Amino acid sequence: MSSAPLRSPAPRALRMKKDESFLGKLGGTLARKKKAKEVSDLQEEGKKAINSPMSPASGDIHPDDTLLEENEERTMIDPTSKEDPRFKELVKVLVDWINDVLVEERIIVKQLEEDLYDGQVLQKLLEKQADCKLNVAEVTQSEIGQKQKLQTVLEAVHELLRPHGWVLRWSVDSIHGKNLVAILHLLVALAMHFRAPIRLPEHVSVQVVVVRKREGLLHSSHLTEELTTTTEMMMGRFERDAFDTLFDHAPDKLSLVKKSLITFVNKHLNKLNLEVTELESQFADGVYLVLLMGLLEGYFVPLHSFFLTPDSFDHKVHNVSFAFELMTDSGLKKPKARPEDIVNLDLKSTLRVLYNLFTKYKNIE
């Protein structure tokens, strides 16, 4: 059966651009009930209409994206943003983190929007990271049940994040609606809050297409959504120090600072016939940090206290964390850097730690 002909558009609609007239016909027609075949035809026309002005890949449009109620809106990431290497890295890092955390649960996440929307994975992730147990049903098939579960999970998340000033850029509807931008905002906040042993790419932004239905017509707009800033900003460490200034405004002096610190550490490590030439890489496993603290404080560090030949990320984090404990025991303030930052070869974090040692011990032989 052929579909019923569309009603002629109003004169004002005729003056619109071609792509806008498609949106107008779509919005005006969808307000009326259609038979199954007609609705299917209109969905296809809607996809073409949206594709024309916005150029998203056809796979990025959910079948329901063309069926909007009055004042309802849908968002989608522009396909060009999805191809950005930093965006791909952000998604991969978060997926790998979730899978590492939930490996004992035998949960494998492959696609964030498809695997997290119903709250099941988010529940397990929160319970594991916060060491808590949520009072929710284990398996929920209905949409109502899924949203109820998601509501409980997100309320628990908000209790953790609100006191620390996080802006909540997600909701039950956006997560359940498989809004990837909202899901990424949530995961970045959780990763930062729980100090996940990962390195999120900095300054990741995406172009987002927003489709709204107003007065029976579909209107589109574009906006830039910032997913990550800098690690320090996201961690809430807004104070700047000499190393921020050095990296931002005097990179030419960086080599001089590195040379001075290398001279300082080798002055002591040479006593064990050890030598450093690369600060960020040779301190990343924590071994030299532990040995250096023993040399500076004049004691022997028992070999069973750390991994002399670490062969995993966790072993390296253990070593650096142990070195940090030795530093605080010696009267130094707890380093601003995370052990994971050192292991992940973050030069600025490594320089901060070594400079604190230099300041205190530069005059000892």
List keywords for this structure.
3-stranded antiparallel β-sheet, 365 residues, 18 helices, mainly alpha, disordered N terminus, single chain
Q: Work out the oligomeric state of the chains in this entry.
A: single chain
| Strand line-up across the major sheet | 1-2-3
Instruction: Quote the distance from N terminus to C terminus.
Output: 93 Å
Q: Which shape, going by the Cα principal axes?
A: elongated
CA radius of gyration: 27 Å
Main beta-sheet annotation = 3 strands, antiparallel
Decide which structural class fits the backbone: mainly alpha
Topology readout:
Elements: H1 11-14, H2 18-30, H3 36-54, E1 73-77, H4 79-82, H5 85-101, H6 112-116, H7 120-130, H8 143-161, H9 172-176, H10 180-193, E2 205-214, E3 217-226, H11 231-234, H12 242-249, H13 254-269, H14 279-282, H15 287-297, H16 313-329, H17 339-343, H18 347-361
Antiparallel strand pairs: 1-2, 2-3
Give an account of the 3D structure.
The chain has 365 residues and is mainly alpha-helical. It is built from 18 helices and three strands. It has helices spanning 11-14, 18-30, 36-54, 79-82, 85-101, 112-116, 120-130, 143-161, 172-176, 180-193, 231-234, 242-249, 254-269, 279-282, 287-297, 313-329, 339-343, 347-361; strands at residues 73-77, 205-214, 217-226. The protein has a three-stranded antiparallel beta sheet with strand order 1-2-3. A hairpin with a 2-residue loop joins strand 2 and strand 3 (217-226).
